[in-house]
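Narrative of activities, Objective 1.

The group set out to show that a structural description can be obtained from nothing but a protein's sequence at a throughput compatible with the screening campaign. Below is one input-output pair from the validation batch, recorded exactly as produced.
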Amino acid sequence: MTVIANMAVVAVALAVLALLPSPGADERTRPVKPSAVSPALPHTATAPPVTATAESAKKVGANEAGLIPVIMYHRLLPKRLASIDRTPAQVRREMERLAKDGYVPITAADFVSGKIDIPAGGHPVVLTFDDGNPSHFMTDDQGNPRNDTAAGIIYAIAAKYPSFRPAATFWINRRPFGLRDPARQAEAVHWLLGHGFEVGNHTYSHPDLHRLSGERVSEQIVRQERLIKKLGVTSSTTFALPYGSRPKKLTRAHDGSWDGTKYHFDGVFLAGAEPAISPYAKSFDRYAIPRIQSNGRQGDCRRWCTSYWLDWLDRHPRERYTSDGDPTHVSVPRKLAGKVAKGRAKAIIAY
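Output recorded for this entry:
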C-alpha cells in the first residue's frame, strides 16, 4: 500500500513541480542573526526523567510499537499555486490540532535513532519540510523567524502549547531558503541547528533519482553533503528522496561514494502516504519510511493525506504510538510484545 501511494505522490509532484518556477525570495529575506533570540521564543526541552513501570505504562495506555505520523510540507503560500502547497493559516490550524491532540514534535534524526524522549501519554510527530523554500525560514528585523514561515508558526504554537516542542526537519537543496550568499546560508543553518531543528540532505539539484545512473545519484547526494557540511551541519543522518522517487539500485539512497567522498544515512524518507512504523518494531524499514502529505481530503488525499490520517489515528488510539515517558524502556500492551525488535529496545515493558 505504501509503495502504491508513494508512486501516486511521485507522479503528482513531478507534474506539478516541473511547471512551477522556484520563487526567488532573496530580496525578501532579511539578514539572519544567529545570536539574536527573543526571550519570547520557547526552546527545545526534553521530558522530565521518569522510570516507567508496567503500572505507569498501563495508566497512560503506552504503545511504543504504534504508528507515528511523519508529515511532509512543501511551500507555504498566501494563495496556493499547486496541490502540495499549503497556506500559513492551514499549517497553523494543523499544528494547533496536533498540539491539542497531544502530539510532541521530534526530528527525523531522533525518530530514526529511536531517541523518542517525550512526556508520558504523548504522541511523537515528525514535521518535515522539503526543498529549503524561503517560506520555511525567513527572519524579521530582530533576527527571529517571521510569523508566516514554518519556523515562525512552530514557535507560535509552542508558545501557546508548552508541550508542543519546537522541533522539525528541513531537508534542503543547493540554495537553502532562497539564499544565494554562502555566509547568509550558513547563518540560517546555524540558527536552525542552534534552536533544536535538523537540517539535512535533499540532493543538490532535486532530480528524479530513478532516472539517473548510479554514479549520478551518488554525485547528487555527495555534492549536497559537501554543501551542508560547509554550512555547519556536523551530523547528517537522514535523507529525503526528491519526489519520493527511489534510485534503481535502492542502496544508493543510503550508502555510496563519489569523487572520493563516502556517505551513509541511517534513514531514508519517501513522499507518501501513511503513518510510519515505530523504530522499535520488527517491521520497521529505515530505508523506506513513509510520510503523510499535509493536505485536505480531495482527490488522492481522500485517503493519503493528513486530514484523513489524523482523523483515523483519533478513531484508532490503540494503533498510535503513545509514550511511557521513559526513553530507556519500550512499553507495549502484552499482546504486542512480539512485535518489538529486541535489538532496538534497551528494555521492554509488556503490561
